[in-house]
Amino acid sequence: MDPKFKYIKANSSKELNSSEQQSHSKPCRPFLVAEAVVKILEEMGVQYAFGVSGGAIAPVWAALHQSPIQVLHFRHEAGAAFAAIEAHFASDRPVVVFTTTGPGITNALTGLLAARWEGAKVILVSASTSARQRGRWACQETSTYTMPSAGIFTSGQIFHYATTLESSYELIEVSQRLALGLGQSGGFVAHISIPTNIQTSSLKTSLPRVTLSHAVATASQQTIVECIHLLSEGPFAIWVGFGARGAAKEIRQLAERTGAAVMCSPRAKGIFPEDHPQFVGVTGFGGHKSVLRYMQEQRPSHILVLGTRLGEFTSFWNPMMIPRRGFLHVDIDQKVPGTAYPSIETFAIHCDVRLFLKGLLRYFPESLSLSTARSLPRPLYNVVHPSTADRVLPDILMSVIQQLIVEGSDALVMAEGGNSFAWAINLLQFAKPGRFRVSTGFSSMGHTVTGVVGAALARKGKAVAIVGDGSMLMLSEVNTAVKYQIPAVWIVLNDGRYNMCEQGMASVGFQGADTIIPQVDFVKIAQGMGADGVRVEREYDIQAALKKAITATGPFVLDVVIDPTQIAPTQSRNQSLISQGATNY
Length: 585
Fold this sequence. Notes:
By secondary structure, the protein is an alpha/beta fold. The protein has three domains: 12-199, Rossmann fold (3-Layer(aba) Sandwich); 221-372, Rossmann fold; 394-579, Rossmann fold (3-Layer(aba) Sandwich). Helix content is 34%, strand content 16%. Helix 9 (248-258) runs parallel beside helix 12 (353-361).
C-alpha cells in the first residue's frame, strides 16, 4: 500500500449513512454511490460545486445538496467551469463542476480546457447513459455509440485523469487517483463520469478516507551550486511567471540582494511590486516598451525564469528577449524549460519555485548596497485628465480604476480576453500578489465575465471584471450572481464592436471586416435580471459610478461607453500574427 495514503476502513452504513441523523422511526436505506462520491469530494477539500442540472445527474445533484458543499446552479456549463477555475485560485481548494449527459458535458469542455491551461484543480462529475440503454438512442445518449470516448472520457490533453465509474468497487481506485492528482504541485483536471443507474446503486464496499500528501519537486544541492555559478557570470534578470505566485517574498529578497532587473508575464502582475525601482515592466501582450529597452541597452548574461512557459502571450518568442548566455528555467513541469526558445541554451531546474529560491538565497548576502543597483528603464504611465467628451477614453477609465479600485480597495481585478486584456495589463499597476487575474493561455472569451462570480464567492469579497461588450453578450452569469447575491462587478468597455478584431484586422492589412455590435444598454439588461447598474457616457461621471459599484453589496454592472477609435496596446500581438503569415501585405 502506498504510504502516502491513510485508508480508514469503516462500516459505510455507520460512518456515512445520512439516515442515522434521521428519526429512528424511519427505515434505513443503503448508502448510494452518488452519496459516496460526494463524501469523497468533501473529504478532499471541495467547498463549492458549480453546474447545470439534468435528469441523468439528479442523484449526484441531490447528494451534493445534502452535503456541506455549497452548490450553485449556473445558466451555462461553460460559465460554471470558468467560475470553478477562479474559485480555485481564490480559495486554493479543488472545485467541482457537475453536468448532465450529452450537451451538458460538451458545453463545459471549453472551460475545462481553460482549467488545464491555467493550472487549476477542477473535477468534472458528469452523468452517462446506463448500460442497458446504450446504443438505443436514449435522450442525450452519452456512450461510445454517440460520443467520442478518447479525450473526453479518457486521460489525455483535456483531463489529467478521466474514467467512467461502472461499479462501486472502483471507488477505492478513483479516490486514490484523485488524491494523487490533487496532492501534486500545479494543476489537476479530472472527469468522473457516472452512469445514472450506478449513481443510485448501493455501496457494496467500505469507503476509504484519503489523506492528501502534497509532494513537491526539489532541486539538489549540486543544482543550486551550479545556478549560483551561472548567475555569477554577469548581471542577470528575473522573469516572473504566474507559477511563482507563492514565492513573492523570496523573489523580492533575491532581486534586492543582487540588484537584478525584474520583469513579469501578464498573469504575474503584482507578484513583484510594479512600483519597485527594479521592475522594468510586463512582457508580451499589452506589455511595456521599457522591457525591450532594457534588453537592448543592458542585455543580461542570464535570465532566471520562474514559473512561466514563456509562451506567445508572454514572450511572442521575440529574439530580443534572449539573454547573452542563456536561460535558467525553474518549473514544476519538466516539459516546460527549453520549449519556447528551443535553440537557446537553457539550464532546466525541475523544482518548486519557492523551495528553489530558499536554497538560492542562502548563498547571497543579507543586504545589497544601493550603490550597486543599476539605473533601469521603467514603465511609463502618462498622467491623464477627464474631458467633457461624449465618450470615455479607455486610458482615462483605467486611471480612475487604478485610483479607486486597485489602490482604494482590496478587490480582485480581472480582465477579459480582447482589448480589455491590453488596457488592464498595460495601464494598471499592482504592488501585491493575488490582486489581478487574467487568462492569457487558452484566452477564451467568456472566461472573466463568468469567472468573476466564482472568484467573488470564494474570496468572500468584491471581485471586479473588466470586460468587452462582445464577451458580456456571449456568456455572462449576472443572473447567477443575483440569485446568490455575490458581490461581483462588471465594468463593460462598450464600444459597439469586437474592437480587438477590427483593429487587429486593419493592423495586418485586411480592411472592411464587419465587427459591429448593435448598441446595447447593459444596465437595462442587468436591471432586468435583478442587478444594479450605472451607464457612463462622460469621463467626469466615472468616479461617482465606480464608487457606487465598489460599495454595492450585490452584483453591479457599470456600462461605460468608450471611444472605439483609441488603439489598444496590442501591437506586439499583431506583429506576432504577421510573422506567422496572417497578413495581407
